[in-house]
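Schema walk-through. Below, the input block comes first and the output block second. Nothing else is stored per chain. Lengths vary across the set, and this one has 202 residues.
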Amino acid sequence: MLSYFTTEQREKLKAARIGIAGCGGLGSNVAMMLARSGIGAFVLIDGDRVERSNLNRQHFFPQHIGQSKVSALAEQLRELSPTIGLQSHALWLDESNLPNLLAQADIWIEALDDAATKAMFSLHALRAGKTLICGSGMGGFGGRQMTRRIMKRPRGLLVVVGDMQTDIAQCPPLAPRVTQCAAMQADAAIEYILTGIVEPLL
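--- output ---
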């Protein structure tokens, strides 16, 4: 890390606190990439537990099966960086707990599966003036182009990453495209932290 960033950039990354809503295929991979890039603190939210079927695309291993996803991810993050700051919430998001949780970070990675929960979380995050980086369309394999769109909102910044088409209900969530989307979300977060803007990729 010392050779990749200037002192000022390293301090910005270390001071950042990233919220991750959903610690599955997108969220677990985003967290590990950002930790490897020098992000100093995370807020992790997920009410689910690791299952064997998750291992094809999520940053978990057989020894994590049965653990809560936030606990298993926190364990890996601490192993990678013992001084990293972590707030872990093993719970499901709803209208009552969102305001308190959103207040814990200014930049949020939306990595949720349920469409209704994604919409609810995104609406509340933008109303709260947060920078929100969402995933939309990463199923299957092959030639569907991943992109990054910036959508202006009266409050907050919305970044959407994915092919904007494929639904994992119809197209299987496989490691290459899920991880590609996660990498683009992580990259957008770093770009915003270091420059204050995110450029669209079309």
